[in-house]
Amino acid sequence: MVPVINLEWIQKIHRDRAARGYSTEAVMDVILRRMPDYVRYIVPQFALTNINFQRVPIPIEKVFAKLKHLLRKRARRTKPDVLQAIGEILDTYSPEECSNYLVSSGYASV
Fold this sequence. Notes:
By secondary structure, the chain is mainly alpha-helical. About 70% of the residues lie in helices and about 0% in strands.
């Protein structure tokens, strides 16, 4: 799985406009200026991993943030071990916790 660059751009534009007061044009300028470094340093790393988590729209982003944090703590390195750890971690998510992710992201109460 390779990250979807456009989704990352959309999230960055939204965040930088809302939280930092930047114009869309200013954010796009930064994205485009940094693109050669992204292609040179980040993209080659995708070939060295078995799983590449991408940024996804909220509230799923919160679920993945927790998953990535707990997965790093387990420090599994082989593909079977990583997949097993993902399954074990996802089993710890309660229905209430998932509901809270939706509510805290601004969706109607579930």
